[in-house]
Amino acid sequence: MTTKGQRRLLGVLKASKDSRKSHSSLNEDEEAIANEKEGSLAWKVLHISQVRTLLELNVDQVHLKMADLLNLKDHAVNLQEAAVLDYYVAGFWWAKEQSFTLQQISGFITALSTLLDNIREKQMSLVDNLKELKKMLVGIGQETPEVTGGLDFFNTDQAKLLTDYITKSLFQHYKLYQYMFTLEQDEMVIGTELSIEVAPPADIPFPPPLDEGMKEAVYLEHVAPPPPPPEKEEEKEAPSGEEEKVFTDEEVEDILEGVTTDELKEVISSVVNEMLGSLSADVGAKLKEREAQYLAKISKMQKIAE
């Protein structure tokens, strides 16, 4: 037989085996439910085949399997479902450590489910929920109880352990569970803004190739054209036909004798304004020239960066 034929045969045999196993588990569950007496809390939430499967798993596998059995699909993102799942997994693992029977584990999980549903569905108070637990424990320790709460397959010592566990795990945190089931979880929308730099479009002028890139210091020292030299100020020469006239002290005194104080102030002010005006014009021209040089350098750097 070829390898392909062997694989096909193995697949058919495996499918047949899984089918028989599933059918056998179904018959076992139905038989257990049929044989259970009326009012029992066993096999209500977890069937016998499911309990047997969970007992063979480690705690992480129980966590995943329990989420599937209880239809808690969003436990990874929904805090309420995550808390409920932890509640059931912790309870099951505790029952396993107490070496409870399959029937006792199933009944214990049903009791946990009933008490939790009383908070979630009925908004029951702590006192009323304690009364519900007391009703479940009725008949424990009696050989033939006339009235049973559904957990009479436990003995008195086990019932005490069960009560202590439920008190510490549920009733001591009752307000937290009430808060969890009455208030909706805030939805958090988490987003990330990405800033992506793209290459310039391949239009004219084409962007320079990256392999020709160089450091700015190298470009400015060896490639960039040197800045133009500053223009020398031309000395203003007096007209050739005119000679500067020099006044003597006596002539200066004669001129000032006929000038009033206000006129003198006006002359001095006009001279100062004329000198400052020419100086301001020179400074402005130099600033514009220096600004033009810097703009030229920035333009060259931008072209290189592009």
Automatic annotation (TrEMBL):
Region feature Disordered, mapped onto this chain: 222-251
Classification via InterPro entries: CLAMP (IPR032727)
A Pfam family it matches: CLAMP
Stretches with biased composition (Basic and acidic residues): 230-248
PANTHER family: CILIARY-ASSOCIATED CALCIUM-BINDING COILED-COIL PROTEIN 1, COILED-COIL DOMAIN-CONTAINING PROTEIN 189
Name this polypeptide is given: Ciliary-associated calcium-binding coiled-coil protein 1-like isoform X2
Gene name in the database record: LOC118413333
